[in-house]
Amino acid sequence: MNNERQGLTKRKLFRWVKVIVLLYSIIGIALFYLQDYILFKPETHTKDYVFKFNTPFRELSIPFNETDTMSMVQFFPTDSVRKGVVLYFHGNKQNIERYAKFAAAFTKNGYEVWMEDYPGYGKSTGVRTEQKILYQALQIHQMALAKYGADSIILYGKSFGTGVAAYVASQTNCKRLILETPYYSIPDVFAAYAFIYPTKRMITYKIPTNEYLQNVNYPITIFHGTNDWVIPYRRASKLKNVLKSTDEFITIEGGTHHNLATFNVYKRKLDSLLNLR
Questions:
Q1: pTM of whole model > 0.90?
Q2: How far apart are CA 50 and CA 25, in angstroms?
Q3: Which residues form the domain of 108?
Q4: How many domains does the chain have?
């Protein structure tokens, strides 16, 4: 009788093991093949779509080849005297229209804001790859150098764009790098939710912000909220280990992934940074 019970228990255990292994495999396969869909949430526009913003702006369409064209909007201060330019690399959702409202924080301080859409976002065309995103971002910096000196260029990254901004910073000389809700790396973000999977090998997009920051030789300021559940604070705080002693990691208590711009500590610090000579 005991042998029968033991045999039945082993068979039940074996069935559960098979179910668990099957679920693990199915979820892992879905994670691998759907990672692009999970990571990117673009919203597209036709070429003749008309942008409408409440601040002076100019729209540019920059062709790279027959298939790749980058859409960029330049927002301008009302004052004719310009301190410089902020190259703003936005998050992974929708397009420039979602982030245009943030340009006012910079234009009121005398800076132009150049905001691009990644391939497949807004009016930007072409197949999206990590290499292409980083390359096109670097070209924007080259365009800025044709108008401004390096000491008048600020790089700003928000969410997904923090890794892009960090890459450009690692390759260039600028006045400052500012990151809002950054990540350690793309695989590290996935690991926060799928920690039982080998995300370093599974996720094709890498964008290792932590590695880029080690090659930035000018000031870095980071903002992150303690209630950020998109890019958890505990994951982002690992970036403290690669910052220089003169860099800043500003913790905003109660801040989420989407509302840091509403906190006075953020507003005061950003205004201060934009008015430093």
A1: yes
A2: 46
A3: 43-274
A4: 2
